[in-house]
Amino acid sequence: MNNSILPISEQSSNVMDFLKNAILILDTDYRIIYLNPACEQLLEVKKEKVLLMNAYDLFPDAPEDVRHIENTVKYGKPVKVRRMPYQFGKFNSYFNLETHVLEENGSIIGALAEFSDVTEFVQKEEKFKFNLEQMAANIILLPEGKGVLPLNQTIIDDLEIELITEKVLISVSKQKLSSLIVDLSSIIEANQQFFHSISGLLNALRLLGVSVAITGMRPAVAQEMVTSGVSLNKYDVQVIRSIRDAF
């Protein structure tokens, strides 16, 4: 039992008590030596009930991949984790976590974990991504088995183009489209990966028997396509100046 870590100075504990981030300190026996009010709130515990309790006993069902402070004590290595899923038992959260080794005279006497709840941020990000995925294959249906796929910069910047391609193919097949207009008028810039993925999409559409027209390509994007070495000629694709001209 390491007693040197037990008497946390009154000044230090007072400072940590008012920190917005949660603070948890373990000694080398994995006992909880200190936790601030923010930590009590996030872990849903009361300080007077868990002080000097072994962390493994407090949360026996916690998976190994969230036991970073215990492993910091065990291996003497600090850890920094972003958006760590903290999902077991009653918990369904995401934490940003950073651990620190506590030493005295060159020997490890414990570890400190500083963490914050980013669940709301992660949920909003996941919802935003889900909405983008829905928009990625948001094909506007036209009469006679035709459709328009308006791509925009936000979608290609924030989603993997392979995911967009997959969702477009599923949507085209589900809607039983015979022709598709891919409108690029909202694409301001694109890289080589984008053009090669577009090439893959066009090839897949051709195999599905879907005729394709590309509209609204900006001069800068057209130049980038030429530089990328991707050619549309082999896919029998119509290239039209604007979507209005396509109609």
TrEMBL record:
The PAS domain, residue ranges: 8-51
Gene3D superfamilies the UniProt entry points to: PAS domain (3.30.450.20), STAS domain (3.30.750.24)
Organism superkingdom: Bacteria
Keywords: Phosphoprotein
SUPFAM superfamilies: PYP-like sensor domain (PAS domain), SpoIIaa-like
Residues in STAS domain copies: 164-247
Matches recorded under PROSITE patterns: PAS, STAS
Classification via InterPro entries: Bact_StressResp_Reg, PAS, PAS-like_dom_sf, STAS_dom, STAS_dom_sf
PANTHER family xref list: RSBT ANTAGONIST PROTEIN RSBS-RELATED, RSBT CO-ANTAGONIST PROTEIN RSBRC
Protein's UniProt name: PAS domain-containing protein
UniProt source species: Bacillus salacetis
